[in-house]
Amino acid sequence: MAALKIAFEAPDNSGMFRPSQARPIDLVHLANQTMGDKALEIEVLQMFSRQSRQLMKDIAGADTEGRKSASHRLKGASLAVGAHAVARAAEAIENDPATDSHLAELSVAVLEAEHFVLKLCR
């Protein structure tokens, strides 16, 4: 009977394992995508870093439609690995490709994600 009482009086800790939006890469989301395979996580993150670097070049040198297309691809890749800040910044460019401040925000988000990936790969 005491165990039953403890179970119903215990605090709700269900929020304890929610994905982290604070990190450049949401490791919980990534682990779900890779089924917990750490080697695959590293491989996917390295591919994401290379792809994001190339897409940044594409976005910077493109016309309006090119910016929309490249930022859409970057947003998709970012969501796949859990790089939520990169995805939000890419979406801002996709929705408003003429505003240069969005490109600066995206550059910062990509750089932070790349540094995070480099630290994980050490």
Describe this entry's structure for a reader.
Mean pLDDT is 87; it is low at 1-18. The longest helix has 23 residues, at 38-60. It is elongated, with a radius of gyration of 18 Å. The protein contains six helices and no strands. It has one domain (28-120). By secondary structure, it is mainly alpha-helical.
Topology:
Layout (H helix, E strand, L loop, with lengths): L1 H8 L17 H7 L4 H23 L3 H18 L2 H12 L4 H21 L2
Helix pairs in contact: 3-4, 3-6, 4-5, 5-6
Summarize the structure.
The protein is an all-alpha fold. 73% of the residues lie in helices and 0% in strands.
Which key features would you list for this structure?
122 residues, mainly alpha, 6 helices, elongated, disordered N terminus
Share of residues in strands: under 5%
Cα radius of gyration in angstroms:
18 Å
In DSSP terms, counting alpha (H) and pi (I) runs of 4 or more, how many helices? 6
The major beta sheet can be summarized as:
none
